[in-house]
Amino acid sequence: MTDADYRSELDTPCLVVDSALLERNIEEMSAYARARGIALRPHIKTHKTAEIAQLQRRAGAVGFTCAKLGEVEALADAGVLDDVLVAYELVGEQKIRRLLRLVDRLRITVAVDSVAVAEPLAWAVAAAGKRLDVVIEIDTGLRRAGVEPGEPALRLARELQRMPGLRVRGLMTHEGHAGRATTREEMERLARQAGEAMVATAELLRKHGIPVEVVSVGSTPAAFATTQVAGITEMRPGTYVFYDAAAFRFGRIGPERVALRVLATVISRPAPDRAIIDAGSKTLTTDPPPPDRRGFGYIVEYPHATIVRLNEEHGIVEFPAGTPAPAVGERIEIIPNHVCPVVNLQDELFVVRDGRVVGTWPVVARGKVR
Amino acid sequence: MTDADYRSELDTPCLVVDSALLERNIEEMSAYARARGIALRPHIKTHKTAEIAQLQRRAGAVGFTCAKLGEVEALADAGVLDDVLVAYELVGEQKIRRLLRLVDRLRITVAVDSVAVAEPLAWAVAAAGKRLDVVIEIDTGLRRAGVEPGEPALRLARELQRMPGLRVRGLMTHEGHAGRATTREEMERLARQAGEAMVATAELLRKHGIPVEVVSVGSTPAAFATTQVAGITEMRPGTYVFYDAAAFRFGRIGPERVALRVLATVISRPAPDRAIIDAGSKTLTTDPPPPDRRGFGYIVEYPHATIVRLNEEHGIVEFPAGTPAPAVGERIEIIPNHVCPVVNLQDELFVVRDGRVVGTWPVVARGKVR
């Protein structure tokens, strides 16, 4: 992506998507899911755009995953959602009212991890004369939300069965702790353990007469590992459409595979070893680097440089003595540490093919945190 | 702000502004500037809303400061900008074209810190038959953009005077390094040094026949310190409208003074010492805590709890053993570590007075990073 027209054409900072790389990433994950016979239900949190959801669907996604109802509403309004898993506990009367409206528009399944979360949902849908599909969120090691696998999950499943309006479709987990591993071996071990805990819990429920149709896992770093466990029926990766610098450490992904970059301009060269760029924390976010890397992103043209500090609209870049450094006005491309919150800061993505801007995709679910 | 109607009325996560505290913060800074005889030119990066800009103006602000032209355009379109300092180096043909359009709409001054930045501006405005007011950005210790005080600033001023189209109005600095100090004494010492370097540089320029009308400093933490130096003519604080957890360490500001809070809901209680809230990094940002604090924000109702980890839509909160902890569905209010990027993630602010929602203010310059 160097010396191309779009680099001088676009105002900065902005997000540039290489459509060929995007399509390759989407096709690779789809082909894997097809080959394993696993349903692919991508998480839209990474891209939040209708156009990329459409590409995923055409490549074989069975439906989508969202965290927040606002994401569901935005993508349903854009006409690309008909089957969605809300991988999130929905709590509070405002959320339940919005959910009841969505139940009529599309096939929706929501996560629950406690009686306290499930009961208000159950009574609300039953009182409205509706039914709601739920999956039980299992904590396979991330220590976030979720009930413990095994007996605690079974106890919750039995309580859910006694509630009106709910239909238990199965189990879901987000094995995000595997993605935080420092080596590929550790990542694969944690992912396998998570997958095995899910399948064992599904078997336990079935043994007690509770049908488990869905055993769903989700995480891009662990996508090809967790799904090696027989009995997993669904995967929900998100970041794979673009990838980011956090993906580099497991060896499979390098900068040449990353489909989204931040195009930035050097606005000041106050010292020989320092450049200031127009992308700060309001563009790159302060999400920290993965354990094997330093700084707030990977500069494609200057891989030895480090983005040492971010202010809101300034990136402070340091160059090792004797290495090349850019001049004022030069444009550089940055691979973010974590691409998802970076996309969430922008109103649009600029789509590039063969070095030219071929489209602009609105980030329709940007900022939909409710 | 407890037990009030808005806490159950609003969907979460959302940003709640206490209008009485907001007005107090605005009035306090205005009164200080008036008493010192210093022009107050607030930075709009913190609030990015027309309504708050109007309050600042009514309290006596002489104009505003922006970083990006997109902020200028959005607030000018909202009808609240007529005099603005762009405290940022504008580089690239797209920026210059936009600047030329703005020059006709309002009084605009831009920062320059090098010949490489100034020359394209000079020739572009001269060729268009226009003039542009500039200030020289001085690096008083932040090590970001800016020319060194003293002789280097004088050399640049002379070069600017030889360029067509430009009028040098004076000097500006952002003494943000003072705000990163760990004690109030250190902050005040760094702020005073920055102010003295500015005034000495202004004197040097004047001695060489270069008029210096503006000596501008800017930073909320150092606002009452830098401006103690005689000869400072203008201050550009931003965060003071709301304040945040970073402000606590200098002693003057406590939680009771903070005008903006994130209202969040507990969505899971998977363990006795852990709660999961619906505000993650897409709401609170991963901006780290100031040196004296831990976690990703200050929970007003549970000050002993720590927001130990953020995923995009989840906040993981830990409670010390034996301390009270909230139930699923309970609402809590969080003071962010750094309020500016938090506001930049939201489409609107909910305005509360006497415990009731009295308005919604659109964040019109949200995401305007270009």
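qc> The mean pLDDT of chain B is 97.
qc> done
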